[in-house]
Amino acid sequence: GTALHRAKQAGGGRSAFFEQGMGEAAEQRFQVERTLRHAIAGDELRLFLQSQVDAQGQLTGAEVLVRWQHPRDGLLAPGAFIPIAEESDLIVGLGNWVLAQSCALLALPVMREQRLRLSVNLSARQFRQAHFVPQLRALLESTRADPRLLTLEVTEGLVIDDFDDAVGKMRELAALGVEMSLDDFGTGYSSLAYLKRLPIHEIKIDRSFVHDAPTSADDGVLVQAILSVASHFGLRVVAEGVETRAQADFLRQRAPDILYQGYLYGRPEPQEDWLARLSPGPLV
Ligand code: C2E
Ligand code: MG
Ligand code: MG
Ligand code: MG
User: Fold this and answer.
1) Which residues of the chain register pLDDT less than 50?
2) For 128-148, what is each residue's pLDDT tens digit?
3) Boundaries of each EAL domain copy (predicted)?
4) Residue 267: which of 46, 47, 45, 49 has the closest Cα?
5) Could you give the angle at the alpha carbon of 229 between the alpha carbons of 160 and 119, nearest 5°?
C-alpha cells in the first residue's frame, strides 16, 4: 500500500520501528509528513461539522472536525494523520488552517444571526506557541468573527504539560470572549483536583462514559459525579458520542440543561452540507 497505509499499520510505531529497522520506518514517516505538508499547503484538508443540540433538540452549534481528502487514499479521519502532524510543527500549520477556516465560517451572517457556536480542537504544540493568543486575536479581527461564538477544546494532557502557561493563555482568551472546553473529560488522571483552578467554561463528557452510562452502574455513577461537579462549578456540559435514546434519556433525567453531540443527532458532515441545512437566509 501507500506510505500512509503502512504508517497506519505500524500503529504506535515502536515495535514496528524496531522490527522493520530504522530505515523503513523513518522513510514511511517522512513520506507521510511530506504528503501532509503538501495537503496543508494545497487544498486537501476539509472542515467537517458535527451538530450540537440542547435538550429541546435546538441546534446550538457544531464541533469542527478536520478531514484529509487524500488524492489516492480517499477521505481520512484525523486519527490517520493528526498524531503524525503532532510530532512536528506540521500541527501548527494544520491547526492554524482549521482556526482560520472556522473563523471565516463564524463570520457568515447565518452563523452570526442564529448565534451558532463553533468548537475547535487544539493540539498541545499549537497552544504552546508563544504567539498563539495574539495570532488568534488578529485572526478574529481580520475575519470579523465574533469571539463569543468560538469555543476552543483542549485536553487535560495539554493543560498538565505546562499548567501556568495554559492557565495564563486561557485567561487572555477569556478576556477576548473566547470560551474554553475540556475535551474527553474523565479520561485523564487529576481532573477533579485542578478543575477549580482552570478558567474553563465547559466540559465534554468522554463518549466512553456516555456509551455505558445506561447499562453499567459504574459508568452511571461516574457520569452522575461529573454532572454534579460541573454543576457545582457552573460549567456547561456537552455529552459526546450520544448514539442512543437510552443514553440521551439517562443524561436528561440527571441534568436537564446539558448539550448533546453524537450520531443520534448527526454525523460529522462537510461544512457545505451542514450550512445548507440551516434555515433560512443567505450563506454569504
Ligand atoms: P474529539 O475532539 O473527541 O472528537 C469527537 C470524535 O468522536 C470525532 O471523531 C467524532 O466523529 C466522534 N464521534 C462523534 N459522535 C460520535 C458517536 O456518536 N459515536 C462515535 N463512536 N463517535 C462519535 P473524529 O472526527 O475521528 O476525530 C477524532 C479526534 O481527532 C478528535 O476527537 C480530536 O481529538 C481530533 N481532531 C479532530 N479535528 C481536529 C483538529 O482540527 N485539530 C486537532 N488538533 N485535533 C483534531
Ligand atoms: Mg473535541
Ligand atoms: Mg472529545
Ligand atoms: Mg473523545
Assistant:
1) 1-3, 6-8, 10-18, 282-284
2) 999 999 999 999 999 999 999
3) 29-282
4) 49
5) 60
